[in-house]
Amino acid sequence: MNPTTLPAPTPLSLTTNDGYALTALRYRAVGDLRGHLIVAGATGTPQLFYKAFAEYASARGYTVLTLDYRGIGLSRPHSLRGFRMAYLDWARQDLAAAVDFMAQDDVPLFMVGHSFGGHAFGLLPNHDRVARFYTFATGAGWNGWMPLAERIKVWIMWNLVGPLIIRWKGYLAWSQLGMGEDLPLDVYREWKHWCRYPHYFFDDPAMPDLAERFGRVTTPIRAANALDDLWAPPASRDAFMAGYRGTDWQAIDIDPRRSGLGAIGHMGYFRRKAQPLWSDVLGWFAEHPAARAA
To answer: Residue 289, exposed/middle/buried by CB under 10 A (0-12, 13-18, 19+)?
Structure first.
């Protein structure tokens, strides 16, 4: 279906349990309803980046919800200077509110993650309401998993460029570097801290409860990473996804040369040329017994 013929998404306001108002967009399912679907985006990536995927899924029978986490995109305050929040509240509060909103009937709820979205799923207090979870580009964040050249770039960002921008702006003004949305100060600090560890926040002695929390997840998961993803190569994915020890998650390695998709990197999973990947995702969701019944 041509995207121009699809109904426009409906803006929604979601209020989290701690009272923050988020802006989300809901894409209505076209034709027979197969399921509901939430897109759990990457750090510093506005929800409109996922519009093409949301339209693709809605045209195939899925009601799709995208959202901007607090401090980002359409959910950003007037100024990020002085704005305080916990990085993990993007999962524990914001994404949890989206799950509660979408899991309102007998239609199965699915979720697609991107990078941070794969971290967020295990943090959800209501992950059990999601029937299947498919994530792209989820990794441990440690630069030791990256190729040498990228490792050097990331070190410079964390230790030289980032601190200078923080002193200037009071938050990580990533847009000044053309790298995405500006990030609240607390997101920058916590992200930088956890990227010191090979297994991300699982190795942080101040977060001893996370291993048990992730171990309680039983939802079937597929985790796909491109071989040319410099930020989250398969080794980085495997280091993080090992935390989902309570479910039989499946790793998928994407070779851009053999797939014919061209370069994917860390962001190409959701560009229009990646539609064959989207077809695989929706095909797996459609195999769920409740989706077939719907």
So the answer is: exposed
Instruction: Report yes or no on 266 lying in a domain.
Output: yes
pTM (2 d.p.):
0.95
Would you say residue 101 lies in a domain? yes
Alpha helices in 124-209 (DSSP H): 148-156, 162-169, 185-194
203: in domain: no
Domain that holds residue 251: 3-141+208-293
What is the side-by-side strand order in the sheet with 21-27? 10-15, 21-27, 62-67, 35-40, 109-114, 132-136, 221-226, 250-254
157's CB contacts (< 8 A; 6+ apart) are none
For range 118-145, the mean pLDDT: 98
Number of structural domains the chain divides into: 1
220-242: average pLDDT: 98
Q: What are phi and psi of 14, to 5 degrees?
A: -105, 130
CA 71 vs CA 26, 44, 65, 142, 260: distances in Å: 20, 9, 18, 24, 37
Query: What's the number of CA atoms in the CB half-sphere (13 Å) around residue 77?
Result: 13
Q: Residue 250: enclosing H or E segment and its boundaries? A: strand 250-254
179 located within any domain: no
> What would the pLDDT profile of 70-129 be if each residue is shown by its tens digit?
999 999 999 999 999 999 999 999 999 999 999 988 899 999 999 999 999 999 999 999
| Dist CA 154 CA 148 (whole Å) | 10
We report the CATH number of the domain holding residue 92 as: 3.40.50.1820
For 178-200, how does the pLDDT look when each residue is reduced to its tens digit (9 = 90+)?
777 899 999 999 999 999 999 99
